[in-house]
Amino acid sequence: MPEASETKMKTDESKIPLVHRVEYLKQVCRDRKVLHLGCTNWPYTEGALADDCLLHLTLQKVTGELWGLDADQEGIEVLTKRGVKNIVRGDLEHLEDLELDEKFDVIIAGEMIEHLSNPGLFLRGIKRFMRPDTKLVITTINAYGGFRMFYYALRGRGGRIEPVHPDHVSYYSYSTIRHLLSRENLAVGRFLFYDLGPEHRPHNRFYLNWVNDLCMLFAPQLADGIIIEASLA
Q1: Which domain holds residue 136?
Q2: CA distances from 123 to 51, 80, 113, 120, 230 (A)
Q3: What is the pLDDT of residues 127-139, one digit of tens each?
Q4: What CATH number does the domain containing 81 carry?
Q5: Which of 68, 90, 138, 187 could form a disulfide with 98 if both were Cys (CB 3.0 to 4.6 A apart)?
Q6: Does residue 202 lie in a domain region?
Q7: Contact (Cβ atoms closer than 8 angstroms) between residue 195 and residue 224
Q8: Looking at residues 147-151, what average pLDDT do you find?
Q9: What pLDDT, in 10s, does the model give residues 69-100?
């Protein structure tokens, strides 16, 4: 007898779209008041600026009003020197201490929840910046990403070598991210998969891109990452 979450996944699988992460974020943030969490992408800020792929600057071009929040002072200083405004330093797991009294239309938690030791504390704290109509958008690596599993099977050396960011402490999937949000009384809206984007393709080995594209033809649930939209319950 399958678990309820397995049954729902089978029922909804054909309805879950595959999107380009950056293009989706530009669309959902267009002309809105946005809070971008982890906005500096430190320690890769300068590299992303050189490659013209820093998400915060991309969002700055389409939002009505953009705020950034990050814990890394070095990254904040780099962006401030570039003329970026409205960046606040703060700990995502202690948002109650933040001296920011604003509400937002959209809050982007992009590729950061997998870095947190206590994601529940983050989700509880972020509610202070949300209205009933605020959309919280979480993007993160897919626990079942096809090309990563292929690489791990091929080069994992018995499990000791992983294709993982050195600061990641967790992976999320369709079921686990929904369950985490429900524990914190956040209502789950749309769920999407995002494909391997141009910001990563040039840096991958060619055969990993090929494996990814093959997976997308037959099993989009093996996509690079997941996106989930949530609101106050």
Answers
A1: 14-143+165-195+224-232
A2: 31, 27, 10, 5, 11
A3: 999 999 999 999 9
A4: 3.40.50.150
A5: 90
A6: no
A7: yes
A8: 91
A9: 999 999 999 999 999 999 999 999 999 999 99
- Asked if 116 and 217 touch (Cβ cutoff 8 Å), the reply is no
The two tokens of residue 161 are 């070598």
Query: What predicted TM-score, i.e. pTM, was given to this entire model?
Result: 0.90
Structural domain total, the chain: 1
Residue 14 has pLDDT above 70, yes or no: no
The two structure tokens encoding residue 205: 């080995």
- The pair of three-digit structure tokens given for residue 209, joined into one six-digit string: 């891109």
